[in-house]
Amino acid sequence: MSVRKMIALHPNSAGHVNEPLATAAKHAMYCALFCTSCADACSAESMDMRQCIRTCLDCADVCTAAAKLAMRLTGDDDAMVRAMLTACIDACALCAAECDKHDHEHCRLCATMCRECAADCREALATLH
Fold first, then answer.
1. If you ran DSSP here, which 8-state letter would residue 102 be given?
2. d(CA 58, CA 23)
3. Cα–Cα distance between 3 and 26 in angstroms, integer?
């Protein structure tokens, strides 16, 4: 399955796909999954990981919302998409910084995914009017 194909099939796209926005939507969904998995792994750690769990779950929710808004093509709401991409960038930065505090491989992987997602969202922002 392809996010790009789904976007191209939308009647309002006329076959045009904003590639950076499609990539950002796809990676935001991946990031949501990584953050959720990291939070779950943190809950099994013997040390107090409450803050990391909270930050990861919050980031997952923001990433999910950003991905959903990026996929909507009916109507024109670039301002809302910009706001969500900006929120996603900020949430990913906070989550990466929190995960960087811990010496767990799942936290390192989550932080890397968050940074990649934030970079993709920045690229997508540059394409919006």
1. S
2. 21
3. 7
> Residue 80 has which token pair?
């809302």
Give the pair of three-digit tokens for residue 84: 């969500």
Could you read off the pLDDT of 42-101 as tens digits, one per residue?
999 999 999 999 999 999 999 999 999 998 888 778 899 999 999 999 999 999 999 999
Domain annotation for the chain: domains and CATH numbers:
18-125 (1.20.1270.360)
Tokens of 106: 């799942």
Residues 85/62, Cβ–Cβ less than 8 Å: no
> Which two tokens mark 68?
């959903």
User: pTM surpassing 0.90?
Assistant: yes
With contact defined as beta carbons under 8 Å apart, do 122 and 87 qualify? no
